Automatic annotation (TrEMBL):
Top-level taxon: Bacteria
Name of the featured protein: 4Fe-4S ferredoxin-type domain-containing protein
Lineage per the UniProt record: Bacteria, Pseudomonadati, Pseudomonadota, Alphaproteobacteria, Hyphomicrobiales
Organism, scientific name: Mesorhizobium prunaredense
Length: 223
């Protein structure tokens, strides 16, 4: 079944990003019928692979759709969930589900200084678009221990490239970043993406193209 799900997602440029069975007695979200889910498969992307599929989908729809990428993700992942008897969940669902914690458990990843999980192959150029919740357990192999690339990075260029020092040991200064991106001097960030994120040397082959980064920055800034 897992292989079939992976193939169905791959047709849209999406990936299965691992999964796990919930521990006995753990409070879990509900599955398709409303009973407690017993396993979860995470759905995401590496690089900008879904972008052409998303653009084709968007061509036939109103350009005023709010959160179009989220809408597309829900539609695609929802259809796959329906086919395989799962409940689809999105990172934007409320109450929010612990997607980052799930990802860390499923793939053995750790956060970078920017908060984005660092992947040993994709670097910072990956994302999670949804999850499939099943009411039965799935046979998973053991999660491999992965190298956390940030541990070997001495210079930390990801903390030295932002002109307003939005990222620091104190966390992310959301308001400072937002004001800069919206302001006169924020054009490089709006058109080419976060300078701190782009400064990371890892996973460069998966770096989002400028138009994809501009799309995300426009959404972030509410422009």
């Amino acid at each position: 079944m897992v292989e079939d799900i992976a193939a169905a997602l791959a047709a849209h440029g999406l990936l299965l990003r691992g999964g796990f069975n919930f521990a006995g007695g753990e409070e879990t979200p509900s599955g398709l019928s409303g009973a407690a889910a017993r396993s979860v498969l995470l759905v995401g992307q590496a690089g900008a692979a879904p972008w052409p599929h998303f653009l084709r989908w968007r061509e036939g729809r109103s350009q005023t759709i709010a959160d179009p990428l989220d809408t597309w993700s829900r539609e695609v992942i929802g259809a796959v969930a329906e086919t395989f008897g799962a409940r689809a969940a999105s990172p934007s669902d409320t109450p929010y589900l612990p997607f980052q914690q799930w990802a860390m458990q499923a793939e053995g990843l750790k956060p970078s200084p920017l908060g984005i999980l660092m992947h040993p192959q994709y670097g910072l150029w990956h994302a999670y678009r949804g999850a499939l919740l099943f009411e039965d357990e799935i046979a998973f192999g053991e999660t491999r221990e992965v190298v956390h690339l940030c541990d070997a990075c001495v210079d930390k260029p990801c903390l030295k490239s932002c002109p307003v020092d939005a990222y620091s040991a104190d966390g992310f200064a959301h308001g400072t970043c937002l004001a800069h991106v919206r302001g006169h001097n924020g054009a490089p960030c709006r058109t080419g993406g976060c300078l701190d994120r782009n400064a990371c040397p890892y996973g460069a082959a998966y770096r989002y193209p400028p138009e994809v980064q501009a799309f995300h920055m426009t959404a972030f800034a509410g422009l």
